[in-house]
Design a protein that fits this description.
binds adenosine-5'-diphosphate; 12 helices; Chromosome segregation ATPase; alpha/beta; 8 strands; Rossmann fold; P-loop_NTPase; 8-stranded mixed sheet
Length: 261
Amino acid sequence: VKRSKSGKNTRIIAIINQKGGVGKSTTAVNLAAALSEMGRKTLLIDFDPQGNSTSGFGIEKEELDQCIYDALLHNTPASDLIIQTNSKRVFIVPATIQLAGAEIELVSTMARETRLKELIAPVKHEFDFILIDCPPSLGLLTINALAAADSVLIPIQCEYYALEGVTKLLESMKMVKGRINTNLTIYGVVLTMYDSRTSLANQVVEEVRSFFGAETFKTLIPRTVKLSEAPSYGLPITTYAPNNKGSKAYMSLAKEVIKRA
Ligand code: ADP
């Protein structure tokens, strides 16, 4: 893996929301691909035992003999786990279901909350962005992600109870900030699965914007079938359907993300 040419500081961003199905993996895969389209070298760390970011790039989980679990529990260096994806400047550290065991096994290890941070450190400077796709819980894996990241990107689905659980998430962030990672900030909040035809979606947008203010990205990620189909082809939307509104939205989000860096 060659050093990125841009020479900018690496941004480590945890994509987090303890609710499942809000668009974390979809955002991780497609934001990584969009950032790469804009010339940014990106490492995606799949930190969700479901491994949807891994399969989203067409990587066959059954064929992997190592994953992020081995780095966390067996000290395998991250450099041994990084795989080039089918998108030019996107690299991934994959996850398999094996990672599910880490939540419990980590408890008895030394420096259990900073394992991910330690394993990213030696490869960090090779990338412009490192995105961490977090699991849908606030357990030890998520604490590791919050300890390793400089900031969090929170996807919020335009659905009933959109903000439910957000207070809990902010409390966890505060706890990590106080004890392990004083510089942790919110990078941004992105609204996902937006359907402009429903008044509910528009209400949620209003609600989230009044709660998070300028932290909310202007880009709204639309609900579109192409975004849900792309993973079954193992492709990000920018390759699968580059002219689709979902692809344009993730490109627009990438632009905002780069601007905030
Ligand atoms: P999470 O990682 O938070 O569990 P996912 O990204 O896996 O959420 O999304 C949950 C489901 O919703 C998946 O089936 C995904 O394909 C679908 N999905 C996510 N974003 C969109 C979107 N913008 N439009 C249509 N379907 C979407």
